[in-house]
Amino acid sequence: MNDAPHLEPGMALFLDFDGTLAELAARPEDVAVPSALIATLRRIQTDLDGALAVVSGRPVAEIDGFLAPLHLPAAGLHGLEHRETLGARVHRAEEGAEIRLLKQRTRDSGLLERGIYFEDKGPTLALHYRSHPDLEQELAAFVEEALQDLPGLHRVNGKMVIEAKPDASDKGVALRHFMGQMPFAGRTPVFIGDDVTDEDGIAAAQALGGFGIKVGEGDSCARYRLSGVAAVHAWLDRASLKVV
Ligand SMILES: O=P(O)(O)OC[C@H]1O[C@H](O[C@H]2O[C@H](CO)[C@@H](O)[C@H](O)[C@H]2O)[C@H](O)[C@@H](O)[C@@H]1O
């Protein structure tokens, strides 16, 4: 992979949140975003005529909280939530019967008492084992078994987390949705992300003539790579000074 090229005025920028804009932390709520990053994102948003969106596994409301006072166009819950334009209403998929059942089975499993962190995101569920890595195999086996008679749900492995979500969307679907609308339509998409779920967004950007940037180590279909969150911040800083 080569060095990431600069952002140009005709591009549309899609950014993952955890592990890309924000360093990973012990628990989801422990994450912090430097105020300088918010100022940089605001500048880029203006420079790209609004064609900047966050595409995350988190709910959009949490992204808004971390990036306050910025309320960027955003896709949350791996594309199950959408806010197309700055400050517009968030559209969210319903919490289905299957995910409700999975949540109940998880509460009954005894895994939470042993340290698995339960992140209820409405239509999706994230089960974190960061503070108990020894439980990874057991948790994976539990989720695998539980999903056998919940065919509408799909397992997604993240960083020290196993998520269950409906099949309806992923980050690639989210990117394509944005690219069909102004101010994104007609631009060259760039997707930056660190995790397995970001590969759908990166592949979609590259299929539409743009490029992806993988953050950190690991296999990726991205054409470019940045070493970590600090390198992403530096790239964004340079971008915010370059785009004219
Ligand atoms: O798509 P993203 O914006 O990268 O979100 C992916 C998941 O990120 C969060 O979990 C991850 O970050 C936590 C905070 O650093 C960390 O404690 C955890 O181990 C990571 O997996 C978030 O909690 C999930 O809901 C997101 O889906």
UniProtKB/TrEMBL annotation:
It holds the Pfam family Trehalose_PPase. Keywords: Hydrolase, Magnesium, Metal-binding. Gene3D superfamilies: HAD superfamily/HAD-like (3.40.50.1000), Trehalose-6-phosphate phosphatase related protein, domain 2 (3.30.70.1020). InterPro entries: HAD-like_sf (IPR036412), HAD-SF_hydro_IIB (IPR006379), HAD_sf (IPR023214), OTSB-like (IPR044651), Trehalose_PPase (IPR003337). Its EC number is 3.1.3.12. Pathway: Glycan biosynthesis; trehalose biosynthesis. It is an enzyme of class 3 (hydrolase). GO terms for molecular function: trehalose-phosphatase activity. It catalyses: alpha,alpha-trehalose 6-phosphate + H2O = alpha,alpha-trehalose + phosphate. Its cofactor is Mg(2+). It comes from the Bacteria. PANTHER family: TREHALOSE 6-PHOSPHATE PHOSPHATASE. Belongs to the trehalose phosphatase family. Removes the phosphate from trehalose 6-phosphate to produce free trehalose. This is Trehalose 6-phosphate phosphatase.
